[in-house]
Amino acid sequence: MARRVVVTGGSGKLGRAVVDELRTHGWKPVVVDKVPHPDREVASVVADLRDLGQATEVLAAVDSRFRRVDALVHLAAVPGPGLATNSAIFENNLMTTHNLFTSAVRAGVNTVVWASSETLLGIPFTTPPPYLPVDENYSARPESSYSLAKHLEETMAAEIARWNPDMSLTALRLSNVLDDTDYARFGEHQADAARRRWNLWAYIDTRDGAQAVRKALEHAIPGYRMYVIANADTVMERPTAELVAEQFPGVPTNREFTGNETLLCIDKARRELGYQPTFGWRNTTR
Ligand SMILES: NC(=O)c1ccc[n+]([C@@H]2O[C@H](COP(=O)([O-])OP(=O)(O)OC[C@H]3O[C@@H](n4cnc5c(N)ncnc54)[C@H](O)[C@@H]3O)[C@@H](O)[C@H]2O)c1
């Protein structure tokens, strides 16, 4: 029987791709968002998840359409610093996550996958990273209220997993979420590497981000885990080794960089989730 998954933020940029991915892989997604999903074929519930009552209700049941939820994918958030005031972002993102995690506990929804962020790696790297490529093996370095909320969400998840040993909570530290519309403008930054130095020239295609979400659901095991999720290449035409030498001289490197390989290490996601990015801007006709 198809497994029911609540997808918060399912009407958004990444959420729409996640819904498509889950629908084509045997899941039954139900979108929960402040705005309805554009496709009327997709089950969609409008809710403001800052409200605990609404968060609790959508994980327990929504009228006669469903009575049991098997998993939660939580993407609802203001998706970056500067899009609202710091305190509005902090409050919206942290409280929705607390409401959903605690509601999942109450409703017995034991599988949770949610969007954390590459910002925890130290973006915008005004302070250079400790080494390259960056990975999951150094302490979080939030540099904004947005990132601080994501950091506290990961901290919260670790404690909730400790309190509830049957639960699986997986954080995906997603890179900058991009799609074909963004790729159409990729010529603009090629002449000046400093323009996208802030996130080490990384990105995640919506479809590959969606694959990571699905695979995290499929590989859920009890406990808290987190993964860096990016595409295998950069947004640049210039080779990665050249970018590093120019923009991050003196930063230790853990490997020799080949071609345009990403500086956000995705080895752990490949190894443990079977994540295999296949889309991206180089495959897209621009
Ligand atoms: N966009 C990026 O570059 C990026 C990078 C890393 C991580 N992320 C994370 O990925 C997730 C999805 O990002 P996106 O780019 O698809 O953003 P988006 O803005 O396109 O989608 C987010 C959705 O969340 C909904 N939402 C926000 N607050 C809500 C609330 N209180 N109640 C109900 N719905 C609410 C919005 O209506 C929107 O549809 C977010 O958690 C974001 O922080 C995004």
Topology summary:
Blueprint: E1 3-8, H1 13-23, E2 27-33, E3 43-46, H2 52-60, E4 71-74, H3 86-107, E5 111-117, H4 145-163, E6 168-174, E7 177-178, H5 180-183, E8 204-205, H6 206-218, E9 223-229, H7 240-247, H8 267-273
Parallel strand pairs: 1-2, 1-4, 2-3, 4-5, 5-6, 6-9, 7-8
Bound molecules: nicotinamide-adenine-dinucleotide.
Protein name: NAD-dependent epimerase/dehydratase family protein
InterPro entries: Epimerase_deHydtase, NAD(P)-bd_dom_sf
Domain NAD-dependent epimerase/dehydratase: 5-229
Number-wise, the strands total: 9
Please give the CATH architecture.
3-Layer(aba) Sandwich
| Tertiary shape | globular
Number of domains: 1
CATH topology: Rossmann fold
Rg from alpha-carbon coordinates = 19 Å
State mean pLDDT (0 to 100 scale): 96
> Biggest sheet: strands side by side, in what order?
3-2-1-4-5-6-9
The low-confidence parts are: none
Compute the number of helices: 8
CATH class: Alpha Beta
- Chemical compounds bound to the protein: nicotinamide-adenine-dinucleotide
Secondary structure class reads alpha/beta
Range of helix content: 25-40%
> Helix and strand string, N-terminal first?
EHEEHEHEHEEHEHEHH
What profile does the largest beta sheet have?
Answer: 7 strands, parallel
- Sheet-strand content, in percent, reads 15-25%
Q: Span between N and C termini?
A: 40 Å
- Tell me the CATH superfamily: NAD(P)-binding Rossmann-like Domain
